[in-house]
Write a structure and sequence with these properties.
Structural class: mainly alpha
Shape: elongated
Largest sheet: 3 strands, antiparallel
Radius of gyration: 23 Å
Helix content: 40-55%
Distance between the termini: 3 Å
Strand order of the largest sheet: 3-5-4
Order of helices and strands: EEHEHHEEHHHHHHHEE
Length: 282
Amino acid sequence: MAVNEDSVAGPRSCLPSAAKKKVLLATLLARANQVVPTGQLIEEIWGPAKPRTAKAALQVYVAQLRQELDAPGQAGAIRTEEDGYLVQVGAEEFDLYRFEQLSGFGRNHLHNGRYTEASVVLSAALGLWRGPALHGVVSGPLLGIFATRLDEMRLAAREMCLESDLHLGRHRDVVSELFTVVAEHPLQEAFCRQLMLALYRSERQAEALQAYRRTRDLLNRELGVEPGRALRRLQQAILTADRSLDFHPQAEPVGRQSRVDPSGWPQMSTPTRPITSVRQSW
């Protein structure tokens, strides 16, 4: 996760190198544009073993962060409030806001049957990621919850993007990715369902059934439960070669469409054009 600033040479990462300053910045960004109490910042940075000089040290870290974040001639991003600190970030400065916006557009397109649009926008959203949430940052109580939330959001966007690609008939293209994501999240039945469908449509029926058995065995062994109804129905449909599983191209709704401009923000327009670049990353 990063807040980037534009310069003559292009985007510049503002991620600090010191571990405690990383925690400080991440905690402020977890509550972006809100006051984070001093006590909460100290708890995140030092935990229960905080030193007696923690408050003074926090002030030093804040001052150092200001020097690293603030561009010449610009107002400071970090404000001192009566009982804490606040970091001000705009919609185009913080990747989380960009990811949430793109994911929201993608979700709407998927639900409305605009699968091409959904795939484009959700791919842009996922392209903002560079590894696990808060990678390299030691998480305290607040950041632990925040990182879990971010990872869940990423997982949901990935599922929606893959679902869009399956609706577009890209089953052969996504098989490899689905094998990877199922291995990473073996208890997520939604990804197993997508893998089974992609394999079946790629004329790999035996492998589709093997994927089901692996997931069923894991659920039984780890949780003592059977796969959900949707997965069981898909297995039965594959066994009987149900024609409803075949890919049937669908005409997408005609009307106003969203696109992604060079800065990565979706806009309402027609026709659609592809993504040309995404500048910020986290």
